[in-house]
Design a protein that fits this description.
This protein has two domains: 105 residues; 157 residues, Trna Endonuclease, Chain: A, domain 1. Helix content is 29%, strand content 34%. The chain contains nine helices and 13 strands. The longest helix has 14 residues.
């Protein structure tokens, strides 16, 4: 067996290492075509994935968009790219127009649910049929948020789901997809647009998607107030909701709340009374 494919375990036995992720191999080739010491941003075209795959004699993924989505939100960048990040900074991939992208260094930001935050019990109104046939975490999360009107509860306004998995374009960014788009109003009649991003347990809340969502609202709904929300599953079926905003190109948390969906018979009357104060 090839020695490069062996790894020593703590017990002294050998196991085969998993093959390198091809998405990481492709982005590594593209990154180092453009990057040099001191570079803080550069653009590249989507068809560079094709040329990189040809150079590496690698089968190209059918869904090129999934390559960049996975790198940004699921698997992260290869160690070779991470090693070029200065302390306190990290690379993000942004849209830069039609079929173009931009690597840019930004301040490192991590938004994770606060494990010490109190949980609010909510009567579970999710139809069992929906739970049975949801195809993935993101779809299930969006359905749970919608059927339980968690956006209304969280933001304190009345909202309606306008469209989910909305694919559109934004000037200067290119094509984007919004997980779900709500419109709403408050008791004074002020109208709102609420783009929602849904994240499963392993996906990360990132500045890129929030920036895209906010820019979309600014361009498509000028004059309406944007309240960007991110929803994320936690352990025990708890849903964490964040209201996010952008300040000087950095993502900031306006508010965070955690909701635990339970059968109506399991609601704690004492807890309900404590919510009033």
């Amino acid at each position: 067996m090839d020695g490069d494919k062996l790894a020593k375990t703590k017990r002294g036995t050998t196991t085969a290492q998993p093959p390198p992720n091809r998405y990481k191999i492709l982005i590594d080739r593209i990154f180092f075509r453009h990057w040099s010491e001191g570079t803080t941003e550069f653009e590249f075209a989507r068809d560079e994935l094709e040329s990189a795959a040809a150079e590496l004699e690698m089968k190209l993924p059918k869904n090129l968009g999934d390559v960049l989505y996975a790198l940004r939100f699921r698997i992260g960048y290869p160690d070779s790219i991470v090693a070029t990040q200065p302390d306190g900074r990290e690379w993000v991939i942004e849209g830069a127009g039609r079929a173009r992208y931009r690597f840019r260094l930004v301040r490192a930001i991590r938004i994770h649910p606060n494990p010490n935050l109190a949980r609010t019990a909510i009567p579970d109104a999710t139809p069992e049929l929906i739970r049975a046939y949801a195809l993935d975490d993101e779809q299930a999360l969006l359905a749970i948020v919608r059927y339980n009107r968690l956006i209304d509860t969280f933001l304190g306004i009345t909202t309606y789901s306008l469209q989910n998995h909305l694919r559109t374009t934004v000037r200067g960014i290119g094509q984007i997809e919004i997980d779900e788009l709500y419109v709403g109003l408050d008791k004074y009649g002020c109208h709102f647009v609420v783009p929602v991003q849904a994240k499963g347990g392993k996906d990360q809340i990132g500045v890129v998607q929030t920036t895209q969502d906010v820019k979309f609202v600014e361009q498509k709904f000028p004059g309406m107030r944007c309240r960007a929300v991110s929803a994320q599953f936690m352990d025990d079926g708890v849903v964490a909701l964040f209201e996010l905003t952008l300040q000087e190109d950095e993502i900031k948390v306006v508010e965070e709340r955690h909701y635990k969906l339970v059968p109506a018979g399991e609601l704690n009357p004492d807890a309900i009374r404590s919510y009033r104060s």
